[in-house]
């Protein structure tokens, strides 16, 4: 069945899934949106709540449905997952959510292997890697939300500090979406001006303390979001909307989504958040962002952590 590129499906109607649904409803990108949840009434109630606001946005058919309704969806956003509960270890949380994904993706694959899959559930890098194992479609059409929201927060905080439009801050946070994520300050620019030069121009000759504090907050939120579900779900929703825009409009936008690595920085065969060109066919290629050796080493360490956990959890899942 040919997919409808103006139809999006959201699987999982928890806080993150509901926020993503709300953001996409307002985007004007889609003419149809189906919500799917293990609790059917939850999906239906969320869809009805959103549909009440149709008169404020562009026309859109929003409804709760089941897996069969995903057959012609052009983009499928997976936001389903188990929350962290008191007493859970990091591995407990990861295993639970790999199990959730393992129950969802094969069901979707029975009905639709032509869509682009966007993983929003956490831990996103490990779940994206797992999804690649559970469905046989081109790897370019499976991606995770990665560090898109983390990168946006860094840009916002730097822009605020330097009193400059955050859209002119060009910097990336890469690696694992979590407490080992890595800011690439060495190649960061503000409208072509090296980041450290711009700080000095604005009267901040020693910005290291500020940048360290920025990343402390970003990593803390990312770690909680990844392993404890104390989500900053509005940020995730806006990031998901941005990725969907790049796909629907075939923008060829460079976004730090999660995709499979093939040798860059000596990292191979694991899904990681790195800058990539995103368009109508999904991830077109990775962008070889410049890093100094310290940054590259930190990224390799993050990759090793993600790989060891992924292999352990997926072996157990089998």
Query: Percent helix among the residues?
Result: 40-55%
- Beta-strand percentage? 15-25%
Going by CATH, the homologous superfamily of the largest domain would be: Lactate dehydrogenase/glycoside hydrolase, family 4, C-terminal
Question: For the report, how would you describe the main beta sheet?
Answer: 6 strands, parallel
Count of β-strands: 16
Q: List unreliable stretches of 5+ residues.
A: 225-230
> Average pLDDT across residues?
90
CATH class of the largest domain: Alpha Beta
Count of helical segments? Answer: 9
CATH architecture of the largest domain: Alpha-Beta Complex
Tell me what the structure shows.
The protein has helices at 15-27, 40-51, 90-109, 124-134, 148-162, 195-201, 208-227, 233-248, 293-317; strands spanning 4-11, 32-36, 61-64, 73-78, 116-119, 142-144, 169-170, 173-174, 182-183, 189-190, 193-194, 253-255, 258-262, 268-273, 276-279, 282-286. The strands form 5 sheets. Strands 3-2-1-4-5-6 form a 6-stranded parallel sheet, with helices on both faces. Helix 1 packs across helix 8 (233-248) and helix 5 packs antiparallel against helix 7 (208-227). It contains 9 helices and 16 strands. Residues 225-230 have low confidence and may be disordered. The chain is of the alpha/beta class and 318 residues long. It has 2 domains: 4-144, NAD(P)-binding Rossmann-like Domain (Rossmann fold), CATH 3.40.50; 148-317, Lactate dehydrogenase/glycoside hydrolase, family 4, C-terminal (L-2-Hydroxyisocaproate Dehydrogenase, Chain A, domain 2, Alpha-Beta Complex), CATH 3.90.110.10.
């Amino acid at each position: 069945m040919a997919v409808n590129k103006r139809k999006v499906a959201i699987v999982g109607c928890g806080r993150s899934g509901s926020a993503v649904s709300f953001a996409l409803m307002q985007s004007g990108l889609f003419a149809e949106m189906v919500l799917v949840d293990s609790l059917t009434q939850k999906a239906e109630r969320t869809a009805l709540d959103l549909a009440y606001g149709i008169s404020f946005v562009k026309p859109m058919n929003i409804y709760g449905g089941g897996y069969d309704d995903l057959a012609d969806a052009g983009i499928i956003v997976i936001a389903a997952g188990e929350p962290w509960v008191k007493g859970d270890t990091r591995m407990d949380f990861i295993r639970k959510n790999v199990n959730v994904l393992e129950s969802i993706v094969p069901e979707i694959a029975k009905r639709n292997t032509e869509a682009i899959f966007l993983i929003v559930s956490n831990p996103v890098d490990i779940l994206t890697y797992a999804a690649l194992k559970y469905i046989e479609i081109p790897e370019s059409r499976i991606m995770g939300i990665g560090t898109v929201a983390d990168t946006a927060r860094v840009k916002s905080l730097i822009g605020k500090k330097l009193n400059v439009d955050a859209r002119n801050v060009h910097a990336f946070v890469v690696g694992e979406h979590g407490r080992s994520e890595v800011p690439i300050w060495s190649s960061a620019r503000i409208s072509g001006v090296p980041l450290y030069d711009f700080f000095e121009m604005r009267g901040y000759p020693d910005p290291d303390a500020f940048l360290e504090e920025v990343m402390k907050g970003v990593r803390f939120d990312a770690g909680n979001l990844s392993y404890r579900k104390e989500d900053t779900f509005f940020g995730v929703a806006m990031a998901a909307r941005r990725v969907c825009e790049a796909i629907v409009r075939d923008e060829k936008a460079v976004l730090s989504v999660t995709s499979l690595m093939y040798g860059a920085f000596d990292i191979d065969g694991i899904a990681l958040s790195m800058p990539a060109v995103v368009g109508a066919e999904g991830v077109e290629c990775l962008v070889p962002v410049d890093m100094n050796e310290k940054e590259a080493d930190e990224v390799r360490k993050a990759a090793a952590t993600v790989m060891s956990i992924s292999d352990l959890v997926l072996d157990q899942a089998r």
